[in-house]
């Protein structure tokens, strides 16, 4: 692909446009250029945005996984066009050869970013500060970056948490993204990422998820479970409870419904009034979930209900007993709710942010709302598996930007039962 | 079906059990017994719950829609068994022949009902107070009933709003339910209720919904639209905006996402970064929704953005201009959110309760969360049509108890476009 | 419900219409009137069709499952109206009190019924011949009835098999239907029939299906499996093979695809080119299915491939080894096809008709085409369970008239794996 | 990407393995290397299959759409490994620099290919014969290639049509594939290809399909409609009939069901017994489809029924009147069937092969069976749009290899109605 000095561009603008209005710059790309299709993507973007390019240096690693390097000259019709192209390429993983420091302006309005703020992705990001590239902390998509010049520390900040005077990064200069590479360490994991279909060998998927849970624990990271009430309706609660008891799950994000039906099952043996044992609706069973909530509210909450001996089994019980970091986030469809439910959604998001700090693997089961909410908060390098019988839930999660998500279109109960059984063959370290 | 004095029961318990432990009572059923299948259902319940019955009086109306009447003697093995049967039959529309007044006990704990509280349905309910049946107001499922003895007024109260000392109805005595009849005035409406399938004549459904909107407005009731962001993604926002402008919609329940993408489209021409006009992703378009929220937060909210001329088109714009009762309820997946979004879910529910007071027809489009939340609040006599391309959303709504819901499995944009066109043929009264 | 001599009708036609044009008749209903909602349905139909009724006799059984009896007088404005009502009521299980013999006319055209032919349902049907009610044999929906006066035998005949001169029943006179009752022997089975949702306790469903398989075998009836290729794609083939080997399945209906991918897995370890073991696409694996077909065609068919030692495992192998009645029906999407595939669809239907003769339970897994085809052939009293991850397949089957179908919305592999394991706990009698 | 003489390989085998066992070869790639990601894909494949590469020549076109060229040296551990790599690269569009002629062997068994046959894709393919590359005719996936040495003509042949002695191409030598490029002429078309989701701007999709129909007709090619019975059930038949009448459709593939319900609607106003006008089930309407089939069989077929004046409207009527190439293919779920239905599936496939010869655009609506069958026959350069409310149908079509398919997840009736209206704005040329 050695450009022999001539330029590649859409309309040979070099002749048509006066040189004075032209502008040029240079970017570098590093990484698995062949493998990750980075280089063609970047060249393609330059051309699409009306620029032209010249490959000035290109080294390809000896092996597929060796890093490669390319330096690319870019030309466009105006400095504005060059800026737009550079801003775009930065998101695709290129970085300017002669970078500037990131620019910050103080926030002028509380709870809003200044004009022109840099809007984050969930990819690993760095900002240039006093000539050095520093990592942005608390990486999260759809935030701004606050850069503390005194401490030399940059981190993501949600819009609603902006206070007047906060130094917020604006523009794309001095910001670079280190894009994720395609997963290669585990081919099992790789196979699942291809597309969303229920017609795939299922036991392979299962082993892959079990392996991800094990290796996450072995690496000292937390496993996060995000679950919807279908876990209880389908009779999967005992299997989840077992996984908690055996140390496989360190954090649980759910809503009032999962917690309520889990407690309903523990107190009455039903879920939404349907007997889990016999599969039939029970007389007045549809009231059970409300009576369960009422009982827990009367007891002063889930933790107290466990301590007082009212609640003696189930997912909530095991969470209390094994100090799982439990975040129950409220929604407008909640009955009650249970006392532990955080009814303010911004407060709930903040608790979720706290809880994901050391999460290495997230398993999202049968909930679109909590899965998307969690996906919004997770950095791109946390592995995510989303299990749902409805392919639309998985598709929606990817559409919203959580690209690292691997979707398993399968039925919840058999999956959770088999996963618990698979994990039980070798206990968690602790 | 004249029982000739002998009893019908599962095991002829009259012989096996000593008479002393037996118990008996009598219930009445009124209404469209033939048409609504009430009588067989009630007889079936008695037998299923271990009782036996004797039909003591039975008058069938001359026409299908004339009210009928039946008086049924019930026997069971114990007073407790009779109580259980009576409690069950009350929910199916039977009422004791010799009723007592409803019993109340004062709430002993704030935010929780007393033990044994009567748990409401969304059907029209009456309580007996000083020998008279009075209507329960603010009918809503999964609430308790507070009965003010001074005012002689009963109304539904959500658990979380209970204050210590509130007189709450307990048990089933003195409570009766007047079950909804099957819809008959409109056969078009009737046809749609059969089951959830996409393979039905579609133009009939459309005319039925248009007719329901018109007749609701003609009756001086409000039309409520509950919508998800797919309305904007699919390019349906202009059609919804037109319906608002023309006076067909009086209340709108939605979340941050619908409002954000509507504003994104108005400001940038995109929805989730995809051009509505050309259907293609725009450069950096994925940031547009965040920039739209930021712009509105900087402006001080949607209403101010309309007043200042920043926001000049779209659903939100029309809501502000035409005084639509707009409730934007927060959720944990929200970015921002927009200033008008109510982030506390209990506060949002209360605003929704207020707004549904005069609603005669609710149209739920492409949102599971807001649809289920709304379904939880609506009494059974408000007609509900749920439009979604995913049959699971419709099924879920019915499973959660909103039985009056008619599901239309269809694509949002063509449906909304055609509905707006159909309604435009004859303008709303006001 | 004793009508006291007065009539119930929509518009009191007795006054409006001259008596001379009126007509009347009488029908009987027997069976579980209370339980099956038969009586209200019939009264409702009479009124809907413009008639009026009078209940002349009504006896209700002592227990829920005891048979009841009602005799109902019907009036309408004309003999034609009475005929239409009677024809309708017959399908709902009523029968005329003063019946005539069934009328037959000889078929005038080969492969078509005479005008006015009686069109069958899949319910148990009888025709009146020389004053006696005789059972119609080979009950199948959407057929005609051929009544052999010499042998006094009636049976269903498909349109395409009509030969000139065949005596075909016309009109509704002398035909009666004995409607199925709701299943009650097994409450587990009952629970599943409520509606199509994936949110149900799954292990209950599984035990119910296993129990149905066992009781069918214990009763000396055949179990029929109807399966699609997703059985192989999802890695379920070994479990199905095990069930065949252990004597649980006597007949298998499938298409070229299931057989091909099963053989592909046996020969190459892949299904549609994806390794079942590792879950990854294999180099050139997409060609494997074609090479598998080619190999079997070269060998002279599946049976010969087993005999020659080419094919040594899998579903097809076990079918050959255990004399399962295998019907591979062709479709236009077939590659090859395999030599055993019956490419003429009418011939395939005839083979399926033969094979279902002694089937007591049909398990339909992951195939819409073969499931609907089988559903068309099965009488209403054969229990059918349809397993598919897509709720639309189940809905479609019911919409097409196979009302006895119980739908399980679940994932194929875990279901089949667990079913095989459950059945393996106690072996089949033989 | 100029390889500076050193090799890139997974494990530096040059040292470990004795040179004598090594093998090498050279391939060329031409086309839009940057744009189509061809080059990285090919390099990736070489490494994955255990080979190493050296880029020996590389010219990149000036513009994105200009052709580029690369010559790549390949090394592997054995001649067999080189062969496997070459075979694989051929499918990805590379071709050997020093090619041989294609090898043929005569078929030894009727209806089966010889061992080692070349299995075709649906991409444009050429075979080398006497030193020249000749186009393979009747391109179709999952066939073999018969090469007539006398005529110098190569064409695809389905397995079942092989006769003893036919010269069949074996191995990959002398075969090359010219891969399709990504569509670029129409960005509208491009946008739709991204993924399968119902949440996209719908009117853009509609205009794209209308434009494809128009441009196909303008180019003198045929438009093929492949449709399922939901077209009739949803009330879309009149719109399809209009499109046929106005000259937009030249070929129609369907089954007995679409034809039957279309005729049922014409004769009785119902589809599956449901009134299209009023949306309600009609008395005895479920028999209508059988009576419709019977009437057509009595008339001697669809064409005769049109000629005799029995059938006067609908899709079938318009097909007869406007000489649409109608292929009704049988399936095992058919009632009747209608006389024009081809009940032998191999005969039906052959008729479909004939009919697609000049098809330039295929619109597949609401049928999985006929869509997959058609997809199997179409070469990759025929544009395909698949419209279904169920995303699984679209996914399945792509999984089966018809990669050029663009899926529209939308409701049939509004789509077809709007398409007919859009096309009616400017009439077809002929």
Automatic annotation (TrEMBL), chains A, B, C, D:
Keywords: Lyase, NAD, Nucleotide-binding. Residues 124-204 form the Arginine dihydrolase ArgZ/ArgE-like C-terminal first subdomain domain. Its cofactor is NAD(+). Residues 208-419 form the Arginine dihydrolase ArgZ/ArgE-like C-terminal second subdomain domain. Residues 25-122 form the LOR/SDH bifunctional enzyme conserved domain. GO terms for molecular function: nucleotide binding; ornithine cyclodeaminase activity. Gene3D superfamilies: conserved putative lor/sdh protein from methanococcus maripaludis s2 domain, putative lor/sdh protein like domains. It is an enzyme of class 4 (lyase). InterPro entries: ArgZ/ArgE-like, ArgZ/ArgE-like_C_1st, ArgZ/ArgE-like_C_2nd, LOR/SDH_bifunc_enz_cons_dom. Its EC number is 4.3.1.12. It comes from the Bacteria. This is ornithine cyclodeaminase. It comes from Aquisphaera giovannonii. The lineage of its organism: Bacteria, Pseudomonadati, Planctomycetota, Planctomycetia, Isosphaerales.
């Amino acid at each position: 692909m050695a450009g022999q000095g001539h330029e590649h561009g859409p309309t040979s603008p070099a002749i048509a446009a006066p040189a004075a209005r032209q502008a040029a710059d240079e970017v570098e790309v590093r990484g698995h250029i062949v493998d990750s299709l980075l280089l063609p993507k970047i060249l393609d973007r330059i051309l699409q945005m009306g620029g032209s390019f010249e490959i000035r240096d290109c080294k390809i690693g000896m092996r597929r996984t060796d890093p490669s390097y390319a330096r690319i000259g870019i030309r466009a019709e105006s400095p504005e066009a060059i800026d737009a192209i550079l801003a775009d390429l930065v998101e695709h993983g290129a970085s300017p050869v002669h970078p500037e420091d990131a620019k910050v302006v103080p926030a002028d309005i509380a709870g809003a970013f200044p004009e022109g703020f840099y809007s984050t992705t969930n990819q690993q990001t760095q900002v240039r500060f006093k000539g050095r590239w520093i990592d942005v902390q608390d990486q999260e998509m759809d935030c701004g970056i606050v850069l503390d010049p005194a401490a030399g520390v940059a981190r993501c900040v949600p819009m609603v948490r902006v206070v007047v005077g906060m130094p917020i990064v604006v523009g794309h200069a001095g910001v670079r993204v280190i894009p994720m590479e395609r997963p290669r360490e585990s081919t099992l994991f790789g196979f699942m990422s291809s597309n969303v279909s229920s017609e795939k060998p299922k036991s392979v998927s299962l082993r892959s998820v079990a392996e991800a849970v094990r290796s996450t624990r072995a690496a000292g990271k937390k496993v996060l479970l995000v679950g919807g009430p279908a876990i209880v309706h389908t009779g999967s609660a005992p299997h989840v409870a077992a996984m908690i008891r055996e140390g496989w799950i360190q954090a649980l994000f759910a809503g009032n419904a999962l917690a309520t039906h889990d407690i309903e099952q523990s107190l009455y043996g039903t879920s939404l009034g349907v007997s889990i044992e016999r599969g039939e609706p029970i007389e007045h069973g549809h009231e059970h979930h409300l009576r369960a909530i009422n009982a827990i509210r009367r007891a002063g909450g889930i933790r107290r209900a466990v301590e007082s001996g009212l609640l003696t089994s189930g997912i909530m019980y095991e969470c209390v007993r094994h100090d799982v970091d439990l975040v129950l986030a409220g929604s407008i469809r909640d009955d009650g709710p249970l006392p532990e439910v955080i009814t303010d959604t911004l407060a709930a998001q903040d608790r979720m942010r706290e809880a994901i700090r050391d999460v290495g693997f997230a398993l999202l089961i049968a909930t679109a709302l909590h899965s998307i909410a969690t996906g919004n908060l997770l950095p791109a390098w946390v592995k995510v598996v989303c299990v749902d019988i409805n392919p639309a839930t998985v598709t929606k999660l990817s559409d919203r930007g959580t690209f690292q998500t691997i979707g398993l279109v399968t039925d919840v109960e058999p999956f959770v039962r088999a996963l618990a059984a698979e994990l039980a063959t070798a206990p968690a370290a602790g």
